[in-house]
Amino acid sequence: MRPGFRHTAAPVLFLLLFSLLTAAVVAYAENKEVKKTPAPAAAAANDMAPETATLDSLKKLYGPVEFTHKAHTGYAGDCAVCHHHSQPGEYFPCSQCHSGKPIKTAKDRLPGLKAAYHQQCMNCHKTSGSGPTGCTDCHEKLKQPAADKKGAQPTTNATPKKTEQ
Amino acid sequence: MAVSRREFLKLMAGAGAAGAAVAAGAPTRAEAHDFTGNPDRYGVLCDTSLCIGCRSCEGACNVANNLPKPVDKAQAFENLKVLDTKRRMDHAHFTVVNKFAKAETGRAETFVKQQCMHCDEPACFAACLAKAFTKTPEGPVVYASDHCIGCRYCMQACPFYVPTYEYQDAFTPRVRKCTMCYDRVKAGGIPACVETCPQEALIFGKRDDLLKIARRRLDAENSGYVDHIFGEKEVGGTCWMYISKVPFDKLAFHTEVGIEALPRLTYGYLATIPVLHVGLPVLLAGFYVITRGIGKASKDEEAHK
Question: Residue B199 is nearest to which of A61, A106, A118, comparing CB atoms?
Fold first, then answer.
């Protein structure tokens, strides 16, 4: 080897590696940013809304639903579209009003929780023409009773928190 | 034979009493018209605008009634391709859901669940020779195979073409139809299909309450419902009723059945049978027996002269 080579090769190699690494990191970061941008209209409310919600109150026949809450704030545009019949700024979970029991007498005005979920989700999916409409599109059918079910445990908080403005 | 005046009057009184007894036994036409049914009877309201055609009701019915399980994927209740053809109930399916596409309805795609209507005055019950059907006070019309003779008059009589038959069973065939889960209802529960429906398109409750609920939905502003509750008055009223946002004739409902309860078509004639075909012959035979001796006695006297 020519004398002096060792002194120049190492820093050159180091610089090359460093620039490659930097480029990779920048590219990755840019990519991630693009995916993250929400619909402009819901940008403000989006910050308050939880990422996902696990809807598992009715466990017997089907597994829980991993509801992509944040994505839906974009689809709906306004929180009140789904969190209906309440004051602005009040974002109750569905179960707060829809007690769970189905309509049985003329005094009952609200559908039960199961119907509230399905009617709210399915009506929009049907009219907009997009969104899952099949049963197992949203929740897997349990092959065994709920007690023996193996698989993912809910990782996020079950219901969106009530926020105040 | 000669009959004394006293004996003749006794016989006439006896015959008159017998005739009165027969006439009192025959139910009068007025009773049929006054039929209102048990006011606390239950029913089911089906809101076709909520049904999404998931067939969970068919699956629940299959389990609740121990019907033959689906053998393959094509028969499984998750298979929604079957909705592309119109189906009818059969011995293994007490209820079916049929799809009516946008082109057929002229409005939205609609799904309609079909099953026994549990009429207040059922034609099957009236047509049955062997009293195999019962209109229970709770509302459901139930069939018991113990009395059935297999004549299938019920199948001919039903205006909704509901009862089906186990033709494939040679020795113990039964008539099969929805029971509104009578056992569960009697024990304080609700029918399996109603319980399982994810959309609450089916509501179980007192028939009077269901009419109020239906009326409320129909009267709500801009609700879009057709202003008619199918089953409120049809064939004298049924316990299973429907509301819809699509005209009923577009959904293959039997809108031609009218509001007259079908048993009343034949009740007038059937009510006269005890009087006309039993009481009257007995009475007239009695007259003949009593009076045949009168002419004979005078003829004998003539002959002897």
Answer: A118
Strands B133-135 and A53-55, by their bridges, are: unpaired
> Domain with B200 in it: what CATH number?
3.30.70.20
Q: Are residues B279 and B258 in the same domain?
A: no
Residues of chain B with Cβ-Cβ distance to A111 below 8 Å are: 200
Dump pLDDT digits (tens) for B67-112. 999 888 888 888 899 999 999 999 999 999 999 999 999 988 999 9
- Interface predicted TM-score (ipTM): 0.75
Give yes or no: residues B240 and B252 share one domain.
Answer: yes
Q: How far apart are CA B273 and CA B280, in angstroms?
A: 10
Measured between beta carbons, the chain A residues lying within 8 angstroms of B54 are: 134-135
pLDDT of residue A154: 32
Kindly identify which residue of chain A lies nearest to residue B198, measuring between CA atoms: A115
Q: Does B274 lie in the same domain as B196?
A: no
More confident residue, B213 or A4: B213
Contact yes or no for A103 and B213 at CB 8 A: yes
Q: Cβ separation of A105 and B209 shorter than 8 Å?
A: yes
- Give the separation between CA B67 and CA B59, rounded to whole angstroms: 10
Mean pLDDT in residue range B266-278: 88
**What topology is assigned to A14-138 in CATH?**
Cytochrome C3 (3.90.10)
Structural domains in chain B (count): 2
| Residues sharing a CB contact under 8 Å with residue B149, sequence separation 6 or more, in sequence order | B129, B130
